[in-house]
Design a protein that fits this description.
Elements: E1 5-10, E2 16-21, H1 30-44, E3 48-52, H2 59-70, E4 74-78, H3 85-89, E5 90-102, E6 110-121, H4 123-130, E7 133-137, H5 144-147, H6 149-155, E8 158-160, E9 170-172, E10 178-183, H7 196-199, E11 202-206, H8 212-223, H9 227-243, H10 252-265, H11 274-285, H12 296-312, H13 316-323
Parallel strand pairs: 3-10, 3-11, 4-7, 7-10
Antiparallel strand pairs: 1-2, 5-6, 8-9
Helix pairs in contact: 1-2, 8-9, 8-10, 9-10, 9-12, 10-11, 11-12
Length: 324
């Protein structure tokens, strides 16, 4: 998959919206189309969708693609530990000053001054008012109490505003408003459990690692190389992933990084190219289980990686002999 294009525009005061424009180069395989079709069906039926999966599986890209298919302006929020309800809904922002000078009687001057606090909508409120698509990326990184405001939005179609906004206690949610959530269940640092009440109001679709066909297509599209040239890299990363000998899962992003370095530096995908081997060791070795200085485990892992590189990207002499 490849991210859709969006153009920015200023809407509703200070909130920046993105106008979705599908990208012609978006990689579509049978599995991508099937997932997108399922999710789009739920969204059109009025439900919110939650893409759940590990890093590097294309959750955010898929969310942006769906927002483009819906054809509505989009606003995006990224979950964070410091997220509060006011971050989503809005808060008081500055003052509106009013000064009246009364000179009805020329010998008497009467002056009256007032200062009213001004309310500023934030992204959730703007999206609810205007019927925009809200993408809430990594929403489980926000504390559950910050997301409680979404419960009435998704169930009753009402956004309850804080007491500070005395002129408008709540707003009715626009019928075109939709939310697309993403989360990573494998993360353990800075992640909170989503409350059951919120999970009960959304449709969760699990997104796993891409199949080989999709990884080949995306790596080729993002690097400018042909599928045949990226195939050894994709297969090498996929085999490394299957070994389980790593601390951080090597994803499609790793394949893309290696392929892009091949394009930029004009590297040859062979064990004979020392710079190519170093790039692979840098990007794959950083995923390995860390070991102490002089640790035999670290040396064993490097040997395993070199074996993988040699197997998928052999010496040109060996490759030529095999072809003969």
């Amino acid at each position: 998959m490849s991210m859709s294009n969006f153009t920015q525009s200023e809407e509703s005061g200070a909130v920046t919206t993105l106008e979705p424009r599908p990208r012609a180069g978006f990689v579509r395989t049978q599995s991508v189309e099937a997932t997108a079709k399922r999710a789009l069906g739920y969204l059109k039926a009025g439900f919110s969708v939650h893409f759940r999966g590990p890093a590097g599986t294309g959750k955010t890209t898929l969310a942006l693609h769906l927002a483009a298919l819906l054809g509505r302006p989009m606003v995006m929020i990224t979950g964070d530990e410091e997220m509060a309800t006011s971050t989503l809904v809005g808060t008081q922002h500055g003052y509106h000053y009013r000064r009246v000078v009364d000179r009805f009687i020329h010998t008497v001057t009467k002056t009256e001054e007032t200062a009213d606090k001004r309310w500023a909508d934030h992204r959730l409120t703007t999206a609810c008012r205007e019927g925009y698509t809200l993408i809430y990326d990594e929403f489980t990184r926000s504390r559950p109490e910050a997301n409680n405001v979404l419960l009435s939005v998704l169930e009753e179609g009402l956004l309850v505003l804080p007491a500070q906004n005395q002129n408008e206690p709540y707003i009715k949610v626009h019928p075109d408003f939709r939310v697309i959530f993403t989360s990573n269940p494998q993360e353990y640092a800075g992640v909170h459990d989503a409350q059951d009440a919120l999970g009960d109001r959304i449709v969760t679709i699990d997104v796993g690692h891409a199949d080989r066909e999709l990884e080949l297509a995306v790596a080729a599209a993002r690097s400018g190389l042909s599928p045949a040239k990226v195939a050894p890299i994709v297969d090498m990363v996929r085999e490394f992933r299957e070994t389980g000998e790593y601390d951080q899962t090597p994803t499609l992003r790793t394949s893309i990084m290696i392929c892009r370095m091949m394009t930029q530096e004009r590297l040859k995908p062979t064990i004979d190219d020392r710079q190519f081997v170093q790039v692979c060791m840098d990007l794959l070795g950083s995923k390995s289980v860390p070991g102490g200085k002089g640790d035999g485990k670290r040396a064993q892992q490097q040997k395993m990686l070199l074996s993988l590189i040699e197997h998928h990207c052999p010496s040109r002499t060996v490759a030529a002999a095999g072809g003969a």
